[in-house]
Amino acid sequence: MAAGSLTSGNRRVAVVGAGVSGLVCAQTLNSAGWDLRVFDKGREVGGRMSTRVQRNGFTFDHGAQYFTVRDERFGQVVEDWIRRGLAAPWEGRITTLGGGRDSPPERRRIVGTPGMNSPCLQLARDLPIGRGVRVESIERDDQTWTVTDTSSEAYGPFDWVVLAMPPAQAAALAPPQAELTQRAAAVRMRPCWAVLASAAAPLDLDFDAAFVEANPLSWIARTSSKPEREHEPERWVLHASAEWTEAHLEDDADEVQAALLAAFESATERSLKVGAAVTHRWRYAIPEAPLSDECLIDEELQLGACGDWCAGPRVEGAFLSGSAMARRVLDQAKG
């Protein structure tokens, strides 16, 4: 879509980022009749709620592992997802390893089906999404925005831009003098190394997932135990702690993989014979101290930012942030 190609009669918005927040915001504005375009650097939507497919065809939830419900508004949406077959409760046996703490309290844990990205794929349906498009800059001129990608292709004009991305990336795109930019830049996101491993032989373990303490790992999960997944071969997702990841952020991926597989064996006292494994680095995984605001907005510039770093470090927080962003944009447009 070249600059100037949007219809002139309707409000126009660019949403940069097709994770949960961006998709919820875009879907809400689309339902309200706005002209919009979503941009995402990935090949598929979902962000940290994405599902990874290995070359052998087996799937892994390598980011968000499950989600819970605390807010009634999100709860209604989740129940609709379950009714439509987009999500289901995960009855996995979850424990704690190391540190001597009791197992975590039982709570209803939900996963997307057949993959964590299934609700995102549904939200993205019928939305105009530019996949594999990395936005280089946003520029405001004469009351409208132009979005330019790394190939120097320009899109617009847009009345609004919503940055649905990690705060450091949002701050890099937004005008440096804006208050929104300064607030986003102040939010620190902690990283996470992840290993996705297919076991050559099943492990004799009496749990499906565990929070891990006193170990380079913070979480391990038998992703093949989740509903509507292939149960063979047995597949494990290993998440390193933020502290360990920060200390090894720029290490070679093969070295990270070897260290985390060794940490898994130390925590479980089982030898994981790997059939295949992939290592993934989430540079922006968990907000250290999320903002209390559900989203950030500059009404004068008609610029907004949203994500789980605003409303809470969970899928629910990301959803509520994107929803709040859309409401604020619609309210401002009415005024």
How would you characterize the overall build of this protein?
The protein has helices at 20-31, 72-83, 118-124, 167-173, 179-185, 242-247, 253-268, 308-311, 315-334; strands at residues 12-16, 35-40, 52-53, 59-60, 87-89, 94-97, 110-112, 129-131, 135-141, 144-149, 154-158, 160-164, 189-199, 209-212, 217-222, 235-240, 274-287, 296-298, 303-306. The longest helix has 20 residues, at 315-334. Helix content is 27%, strand content 30%. Strands 8-2-1-12-19-18 form a 6-stranded mixed sheet, sandwiched between helices. It has a 6-stranded mixed sheet with strand order 6-14-15-16-13-17. Strands 9-10-11 form a 3-stranded antiparallel sheet, with no helix packed on it. It is an alpha/beta fold and 335 residues long. α1 packs parallel to α9 and α4 (167-173) runs antiparallel to α5 (179-185). 47% of the residues are buried. The protein has 2 domains: 12-48 and 120-187 and 291-334, FAD/NAD(P)-binding domain, CATH 3.50.50.60; 66-73 and 83-115 and 188-287, Alpha-Beta Complex (Polyamine Oxidase, Chain A, domain 2).
